[in-house]
Amino acid sequence: VALMWREIRSNSADDVTQKLHPTCSSSSSSSSSSCSVPGVSGATPTEEMNGAGNLMDFLDEPFPDVGTYEDFHTIDWLREKSRDTDRHRKITSKSKESIWELIKSLLDAWSGWVVMLLIGLLSGTLAGVIDLAVDWMTDLKEGVCLSAFWYSHEQCCWTSNETTFDDRDKCPQWQKWAELMTGHAEGAGAYVLNYFLYILWALLFSFLAVSLVRVFAPYACGSGIPEIKTILSGFIIRGYLGKWTLLIKTVTLVLAVSSGLSLGKEGPLVHVACCCGNLFCSLFSKYSKNEGKRREVLSAAAAAGVSVAFGAPIGGVLFSLEEVSYYFPLKTLWRSFFAALVAAFTLRSINPFGNSRLVLFYVEYHTPWYMAELVPFILLGVFGGLWGTLFIRANIAWCRRRKTTQLGKYPVLEVIAVTGITAVLAYPNPYTRRSTSELISELFNDCGALESSQLCDYINNPNMSRPVDDIPDRPAGPGVYNALWQLALALVFKIVITIFTFGMKIPSGLFIPSMAVGAIAGRIVGIAVEQMAYHHHDWIIFKNWCRPGADCVTPGLYAMVGAAACLGGVTRMTVSLVVIMFELTGGLEYIVPLMAAAVTSKWVADAFGKEGIYESHIQLNGYPYLDVRDEFTHRTLATDVMRPRRSEPPLAVLTQDTTTVEDVETLIKDTDYNGFPVVVSRESERLIGFVQRRDLTLAIKNARQKQDGVVSSSVVYFTEDAPQLPASNPQPLKLRRILNLSPFTVTDHTPMETVVDIFRKLGLRQCLVTRSGRLLGIITKKDVLRHMAQMMNQDPESIMFN
User: Where is the CBS domain positioned along the sequence (predicted)?
Assistant: First the structure.
């Protein structure tokens, strides 16, 4: 183990940085290396081993909170990895001592799988309860079931013995509010009363949602995915994944979706699942005391969230890998798969959709797609990319206006206003009145012989005698043309209202509204292509594959492709999007059209800007997030970015054996830095290591309480052995155990392209800049972000989180 540790400490970072950039080389004449992890103070391998041992001893110190992080700070991934390695080595060595220690080591090894099991069970249960509650409360706006008020409209009519097939949505047990109050189900008065009560219920639901969020859990608003991405990259946001956030987000998500606003529950379900993951992490010290290990659990929890949101376990794992996670080792991939499996199984056991399937949008198409149809599929991809660009720019502009004007001070009023406008405009149109999930489900459906939707009002040939599953293309009837007008109005309404809805102070997902926009556009295009093929089957583009009387075009497939294109244009997902879509619909045969649309929408959207909606909101909020997909191509050096600059005061440092406790406390009081380099002396400035501000504060506080003789004039030593002092001198304070003897360093001539790659791939919190072993300055993660913003002609201070 000792040999392996020496090998890792002496070679790992050199190997990484040599691969990143060829100019990153070790200096044979200096005790430091230009891009190295080992201590740069001329320490021998034996001394480095002592430092590693001291770090492990320090982790066993009894005083609490050492090694933890303050709110709105970034974790040190290398430090967390080292601590976990030390913990694991300690458990392994102890397991050979007794049977009890062996059992404890086995329990520690299995704790990850236990956490995954608990996350899957709880997130699947919560998703099932949310689905059932949303169905009931959505229908509650229109009427109530007399036989059992907790039944939704569909459930109420299932239990009725008087429901006919033609009027399957009407049954005596279900009554609209006007019929219940006045006894009249038809007429202008009944319509107005139902209209008024629909608006009233919507306002009540949204008011309850925004009030609960504002009073009890402000972090429960929004989608949650931008913040989850930031947290998984190493940022600390205390309370964002807490118990209150979990409870309030679950309740208010039901209220927000039921109010009829143009939002979905899929994004917030990822937040809910991550809250479940954080909750169960607190039960195991392996995860509660290590922020790096905790983020592995949260990555798997995000996969479980998408699994129950869409009924797509494989898509959930890929979503976590492609879109959310920052660090995703192979072990996390297996555990994500297991968590998604358990969550999907739990949801299937609850069966919230009542169709014995895991998904709401299950489709069965009986017609294959043809090569000529790739043209409209690609056009839908272009539409999805343009819609994604329009939505991101408009929504970010509106959210920025909300943050910088008086509008942001009245979140309740904003939610009430948007809900009122949405309800007033949505009720007259049957396609916007119903829930968005039901709308998408109807748009995806193929028109069989038993469908009674307006979209299936085709003119039938009385002489037609074909199997039910192979109905030929037919001319559109008046119901179809009427539905097209209503869908066109619904498309404009959804495009506009979603821009103002996403980002309000209530739980709001973006997946379902984006899919609805694409599904409406796709269904319109599908019906247009279908009618062209019917009326102009002799055209050269239709002649080869569409014979008269054949079932050539499936409009529902176009809706599915359009939904994938618009969702891809907004989020910039590709692989996970296609997998989610075919898991969501069961349309395995239509992977190629989905891939064509997803890739086209990403290309078109990327032509106008590389950031998806989540990355744009991360930038808007100024979170310190280094996106792996961003490219840095500017020819600047570490010396151009490091601090202090020439006009700034010198770097605040500690010396290894001449600083007093009073000097340290004064330095902590007068500065707000998160850590301090430790040097041999202020004259030589040869680097010894780096000490965190929080650890320094806690160590001095603990020493004053528990160690006799420590006063303000006591000398602080960071050396291995404190020198012998006269008896008249105050008791010295040795703090070598909290000193990081292996801070990451680069030379002043290291290209910033390499530095940015190091920060991304190693998750650094800060990096020290040296020349021939002498300390010159420091580069923090925020310095890197400021420099990247400056290189893109942005105001570097305006994007930083405050």
Answer: 642-706, 739-797
- Do residue 537 and residue 675 come from a single domain? no
Residues 654 and 554 reside in one and the same domain? no
Mean pLDDT, 10 residues at a time, the chain of 802 residues = 43 41 37 38 36 35 63 86 90 89 90 95 94 91 86 79 59 84 83 93 96 94 93 92 95 95 92 96 91 94 93 92 87 93 92 70 78 90 96 94 87 94 94 91 78 75 50 74 93 95 93 95 92 76 65 86 95 92 82 93 92 91 84 88 87 89 91 90 90 89 82 86 75 86 92 92 90 91 88 70 50
Q: Which value, to the nearest 10 degrees, does the dihedral of the CA atoms of residues 590, 596, 600, 601 take?
A: 10
> 521 and 598, same structural domain?
yes
> Beta-carbon neighbour count of residue 346 at 10 Å?
21
Q: Is residue 134 part of a domain?
A: no
Q: Which residue has the tokens 């009023």?
A: 413
CB atoms near residue 601 (< 10 Å): 35
pTM of the model: 0.85
Name beta bridge partners: 659: 716
Three-class HEC string of 655-715 = ECCCEEHHHHHHHHHHCCCCEEEEECCCCCCEEEEEEEHHHHHHHHHHHHHHCCCCCCCCE
Residues 365, 367, 371, 372, CA torsion sign: negative
In whole angstroms, what is the distance from residue 777 CA to residue 769 CA?
A: 5
Which residues span the domain enclosing 776?
A: 638-696+736-792
Are 432 and 570 part of one and the same domain?
A: yes
**306 touches 267 (CB < 8 A):** no
Residues 523 and 596 in one domain: yes
CATH of residue 677: 3.10.580.10
Query: Do 429 and 520 sit in the same domain of this protein?
Result: yes
Which residues touch 366 (CB under 8 Å, ≥6 apart)? 446, 469, 470, 551
In the chain, the amino acid numbered 18 is: Q
